[in-house]
UniProtKB/TrEMBL annotation, chain B:
It comes from bioreactor metagenome. CDD domains: TM_PBP2 (cd06261). This is L-arabinose transport system permease protein AraQ. InterPro entries: MetI-like (IPR000515), MetI-like_sf (IPR035906). Its main location: membrane.
Length: 310, 282
């Protein structure tokens, strides 16, 4: 009898647990799972936003069109978007990773706690500004008469040269990378500082007693122990970079040429929302989704096998 | 541990790198503040002088009046505040409720549900915005707050964070409240919620900020000027006033003030909040 009553209480509690979870389940079904299934489904049709006629089934037509080699030469093709996204991602995440790790190590080597804190907060400041504001500030710096040219010319000793920050195809990509790097460097520095703080100081002490130099300590101890953080930060940075939109949108809408910075998200926006080719845009979305999915799975796989115990 | 205090070459190098980075991160912000008080002619003068000559207050007047003197800035920044605050509140409420349910109750399918929610973290918003846009069109909620808020009511990351935090919450408190005859929902409201203030603060800030910074979704949902948010305002303003750099910087500065105030008063939650991502690897 007593046991039965106890089971009753447990079942009643279990029901409450379920009730607490229901709102989230409804939300994620409606606003995550349904849309991604819908995106996959729509990507097989020639769906337009404004047409009343039922969309025509294309099979893999949209995907074949995206990857059609004949279109590769077109500067606004999906090929070019893949290239722009790849260049942007690599060009942003590699400097981000290396410099944020370097700076985090430098900061943790400082002796004054106040300086440490001051630097962390200062580096983090750009992350508070919205991407749109960040792009606006840098657009003025990159003006032909702006600070960007003045300083680069002072540095290179080439007075009066316009680097074409927002006009030249290569420089335009560099500009988007600089803006993005600027906004996120502080954030990644803090991630690394947290990772560094989790390494017990006794390990460093032991190494120092054994006569290891700082340089050796970094390569032989800090970096291997920091590997999980490095993997995590690189994947996070890459996922972030793949999703970039606001910077490119701002530069384009203020007159910069579209082709060099036509990243996938921007292409989805233009194709799906402005040109109303929903099917084609959905196919692009699915490709983006698969790219990010593979990256995330890679991260899970590497972090699982590389877990360090102290 | 103060064995070596002497100044060495590597130390100078390290300080130089840190100083250069300090200059790089802060220079554009100082530039924005300084330029917001200058006329365009001063901003683009070569060489640039950092100290404004007199204060061009009309920049701020222009920024608030907007391109056509409609003062739509006020409406747009209010829209951003409304949307961001609502999203912060709903995210905290729903995520804590779900996190509590997953952390402290045993029911069939619990692990599956948790895994499903975690799986949605792999679905980027950018990949589902087209279907969501179609939903918004079918429901006819373009240009409404509901349309702006609906896809962001709660985040998988928030659920994860809440669950992690509440797993370590002492079950004895909950059991004691049950013995005292408190209802399950009452326990959540009066015992659990008041005891996760730090994680609530972090989550609220992250959600608020992500909406404050959101440009893509409002671009899809809000076509009428009245329902636009502050990133859209800045973007339009920069486009139509492209030769008035002073006013652009004034608008950018005004749009950043709420986040700066939040950052100054709650710095530790900002910095701590980004560190929480660390725990994802656990």
């Amino acid at each position: 009898m007593g046991l039965k009553k106890y089971r009753g209480i447990e079942r009643k509690q279990a029901r409450w647990g379920f009730i607490f979870v229901v709102p989230s389940m409804l939300f994620f079904s409606l606003f995550s799972f349904y849309p991604i299934i819908n995106a996959i489904y729509t990507s097989f049709f020639d769906k337009r936003a404004l047409s009343k006629a039922p969309p025509k089934f294309l099979g893999l037509g949209n995907y074949i069109r995206l990857f059609d080699p004949a279109r590769a030469a077109n500067s606004l093709s999906f090929y070019n978007s893949l290239r722009a996204t790849l260049v942007f991602t690599l060009g942003t995440f590699i400097p981000l990773l290396i410099l944020s790790l370097m700076i985090a190590v430098f900061i943790s080597n400082l002796s004054s706690n106040r300086t440490k804190k001051f630097l962390q907060i200062s580096y983090y400041c750009p992350a508070i500004l919205s991407s749109v504001v960040a792009a606006t500030i840098w657009m003025i710096i990159f003006d032909p008469r702006g600070l960007g040219n003045q300083w680069i010319n002072a540095l290179l000793g080439t007075p009066g040269v316009d680097q074409g920050w927002l006009v030249d195809p290569v420089m335009e990509q560099v500009s988007t990378m600089v803006i993005y790097f600027w906004k996120y460097i502080g954030y990644f520095v803090i991630l690394f500082i947290t990772g560094l703080a989790s390494i017990p100081p006794t390990i460093y002490e032991a190494a120092t007693i054994d006569g290891a130099t700082k340089w050796q300590v970094f390569w032989r101890i800090t970096l291997p122990l920091l590997k999980p953080t490095v993997v995590l930060v690189s994947v996070m940075a890459m996922l972030q970079c793949l999703k970039t939109f606001s910077t490119q949108y701002m530069l384009y809408s203020n007159g910069a040429p579209r082709a060099p910075i036509n990243v996938i998200t921007f292409n989805i926006y233009v194709t799906g929302i402005q040109q109303q080719y929903l099917g084609r845009a959905s196919a692009m979305s699915v490709v983006l989704f698969i790219m990010m999915l593979l990256l995330t799975l890679l991260q899970f796989k590497t972090t699982k096998s590389e877990n360090v115990d102290y | 541990m103060q064995i070596e205090r002497k100044i060495t070459l590597p130390k100078i190098g390290m300080s130089l790198v840190l100083l250069a980075m300090l200059f790089f991160t802060l220079m554009p912000i100082v530039f924005m503040i300084s330029a917001s008080f200058m006329t365009s002619r001063q901003i683009l003068r070569m060489p640039f002088s950092w100290i404004p000559e007199g204060f061009a207050w009309e920049n701020f007047a222009k920024a608030i009046q907007g391109n056509d003197q409609t003062y739509i800035f006020v409406r747009n920044i209010s829209n951003s505040l409304i949307v961001s605050t609502t999203v912060a509140v709903t995210t905290v409420l729903i995520a804590s409720l779900t996190g509590y349910g997953l952390a402290k109750f045993r029911f069939r399918g619990r692990t599956t549900i948790f895994m499903m929610i975690m799986a949605t973290m792999m679905i980027p918003f950018e990949a589902i915005m087209i279907p969501l846009y179609m939903v918004i069109m079918v429901l006819r909620i373009q240009n409404t707050y509901v349309g702006l808020i609906l896809p962001f009511l709660v985040s998988a990351f928030g659920v994860f964070q809440m669950k992690q935090y509440l797993t370590t919450f002492p079950t004895e408190f909950i059991d004691a409240a049950r013995v005292d005859g408190m209802g399950e929902f009452g326990i959540y409201l009066r015992i659990v919620l008041p005891n996760c203030k730090p994680v609530i603060a972090t989550l609220a800030i992250l959600s608020f900020r992500s909406q404050w910074d959101n440009l893509l979704w409002p671009l899809l949902v809000s076509q009428s000027d009245k329902m636009k948010t502050i990133p859209q305002y800045i973007s339009n303003f920069a486009l139509e006033r492209s030769t008035d750099e002073g006013a652009m910087m004034a608008a950018a500065l005004l749009a950043s003030i709420p986040m700066f105030l939040l950052f100054m008063s709650l710095t530790k939650y900002f910095i701590g909040g980004s560190a929480v991502y660390e725990s994802r690897k656990g």
